[in-house]
Amino acid sequence: MLLTKYSKMSASIVPYSAVLCGGRSVVVDAMTKAQVHEMYTLVQDAAQAGLGFGADEYTDEEEFLEDIEDGFQFAVMDKDSGEMVAAFVLAVSKYSRGCLTADPFIVVKPNMRGYRLGSFCMTTCVKFAKELGFMGIYCDTFSNNTPMIKIVESLPGFQKVGCLPMGGLLKDGQIVGTEIYYKDLRNDQG
């Protein structure tokens, strides 16, 4: 983790082991500095491919680190090889005044897409956000990010609360909209 003040809180929930659909065993743990760098690289690659992040989302790694430093950073690793196959951050929302709302960032390695890791990460984000005391969780995703929209809409309790016609810039210069979903975690049972 980047901030030591959160390490005790995150230590209460990780390491977390799970078996994915298809039988792959994974371990979720706090990210190392090397894994944070790897996540930044994956975010940059996804942005260049127009997959969930804007081409101008982060001008450099320092800006990315500043954006995630107040949150909880997690790596999803293959249990057998130890390789990071996905990563997620539960950032503290900068749009939520006076209440602790989680803003998840999720990225899956390109060669691991199609194994439902995105669904696993989002479900785990909700689970961890509840355990860490967040009051709610929201997800804003580009309107062309069909896989993430399907994931969020399949999870219980998320409501579409809005959209922004100008959510981000793609590599080719096109502007893409953003779909916004929210889930209240205060009395959530599911």
Automatic annotation (TrEMBL):
<dbReference type="GO" id="GO:0016747">
    <property type="term" value="F:acyltransferase activity, transferring groups other than amino-acyl groups"/>
</dbReference>
<dbReference type="InterPro" id="IPR016181">
    <property type="entry name" value="Acyl_CoA_acyltransferase"/>
</dbReference>
<protein>
    <submittedName>
        <fullName>Protein SPT10-like isoform X2</fullName>
    </submittedName>
</protein>
<feature type="domain" description="N-acetyltransferase">
    <location>
        <begin position="26"/>
        <end position="187"/>
    </location>
</feature>
<dbReference type="Pfam" id="PF00583">
    <property type="entry name" value="Acetyltransf_1"/>
</dbReference>
<dbReference type="InterPro" id="IPR000182">
    <property type="entry name" value="GNAT_dom"/>
</dbReference>
